[in-house]
Amino acid sequence: METEALSDYPFPGGRLELEGEYRQLLRRRPVARVTTPTGDLAWLVTGYTECRFALESARFDRDLIAAPTGPRQQEATVPPDAFNGMRLLTEAGIAGEVMRHLSRRRVAQHRPWLRRFAHRLFTDMISSGPPADLMADFAAPYPLAVMCRVLGLSVARQDGRLPRPDEERLAHWAELAFSFNSRGAAELHEGWEQLRAYLADEVARERRQPSGGMLSTLVSACDDKRVLSDGQLLDVTALLLTVGHKTLTSFLGLAAVDLLRHPEQARRLAEDPAGLLPTAVEELLRHVLIEVRGVARIATARVELGGAVIERGDLVVIALHAAGRDPRCFTDPDRLDLAREPGTEHLAFGAGEHMCPGTLLARAQITAALEALAPRLPTLSLAVEPSDLAWTDGLILRTPTAVPVTW
User: Fold this and answer.
1) Is the separation of the CB atoms in 231 and 130 below 8 Å?
2) Domain 20-406 carries which CATH code?
3) Mean local confidence (pLDDT), 92-110
4) What is the model's pTM?
């Protein structure tokens, strides 16, 4: 097996297409050596079977990524208590209580509002006349307002968009947290402290007037159970807020582009939204390329994987976006097929112990978004060529700066 490390990683240029380097690795080396931007060696896992094994195996640890020593995929953008927020909640014995706010029952309670809000945003966009920016008018404000509502923040107590100043500040702080070796340590620290100060005001309000949202549970853990410090409370809340909306913002923008680049698939969804939505959601989660690099783990034992021998302490990067295009597991993987027969389960939400805890809420938001978008697809089109889309570089996510549309 070839063991020379690929140095030009993350691979440049993909945007809307899977980079050629990933295609070659999927064919020849599903586990390959790369050098990260920090100069550390890592194992890049691209094959679906290998990615799933790495996600589900206890021999690959996520929490060790935040250790002050050892190989790194990138410079840290958030404090360790934020990065390991779920472990912190688990060790405090309150993870289940906090995650009940993302349970099937709670998500079902949010679903009618999700539908109303999604339809309202698209109605407002259309009524303003063309052209419009689907990122600014929908993909950015929608999941941010949803996550603020789930947390119970006062800024989301109105039945609609957040005030624009709040949208802009929260989006900026999330962008810093999701940066990829593109911001200095001082800027990252200042941004995180500003977000903590913003949330400290919300915590003070929550203590005076409980909302019943996720923040109520976290404040109770701090004040009543005394299993979280004030600093940990703010870090975990900041993590939940940023992760809870930023990934979905990128996904919704890219999913809209994906549909508009495939008008035949868009037409099918518009003609039969009720029948096609379940498979359409899953196919877009598989097909949309959202990651720039992959999720990192540290090997805790010697493991053989994909023809490679991974030693204890090695850095492993799991390229979930590449796994969704593995021809060994998906027929014609580059083709978008909203009616694709159920088969191999995509890894968009991870797998195993570190499966995304917000999966149900994310699927509900995506479904509501597609329900609102579907009837408008026959007349909607990109206002620029896909190759002319502007991108926000320096993030761990592929994120269009704008998605100009017309009708």
Assistant:
1) no
2) 1.10.630.10
3) 96
4) 0.96
